[in-house]
Amino acid sequence: MNPTTTPANVPQVPDGATAPDLPSPESIRLIERQVETALLEHPDVLDAAVVLRGGTLEDTPPETCVRCGMDGRYPGLELDADSGVCGLCTMYERHREEIHGYFGDVDAFTARIRERARAAGSDYDCLLLFSGGKDSTYVLHQLIRLGLRVMTFTFDNGFISKTALDNVENITAALGIEHVTRTRADQNRVFVQSLKEHKSVCNGCFRSLLDLANQISYERGIPSIVTGLSRGQIIDERLLWFYRQGDFDAERIEKQLTVGRQIYHRVGDRTASGSERAVDEVEVVDYYRYSDVTKDDIRALLAETAQLWSAPKDTGFCSSNCMINDVGVYVHKLERGFHNYESPTRWEVRLGHLARAEADAELRTPVNIHRVKSMLARIGYTDPAARDALGGRLAAYYVPREGTSASESELRGAAAARLPEFLLPEHWVRLAEIPRSRGVVIRRELPDPLDGTGKRLQLSAHGSAARAEATDASTPVTAAEHALLESGRAGARSLLLDLDHRPALTDVRRAVLATVLHHDALRSRYARRPADGRWRRTTAAAASAVPVAAVDLTRRAGQDEPALLRALERRLRARLDSTAGPLAQVVLVERGERPSRLLLMVHDLAADTASWEVLLQDLATALTQVRAGAPVSLPPAAAAERPDTQPAASEADERTPPPAPEGEPVRLDAVTLSAADSRALATAPGGTVLAVAAALHEVLGAASGGTTLTLTVTDHTATHGRPDRLVGAATAPRTVTLPAGAPGPGRPAVGLTHLGDTAVPVPEDAPFRVAEIPGLSPETPQAGMRHPLEVVLSERDGALTLHWWSAGAPDREPAGDGTPQQVADRLTSHAQNLQEHTP
Question: Is the pLDDT at 247 greater than 90, yes or no?
Answer without folding.
Answer: no
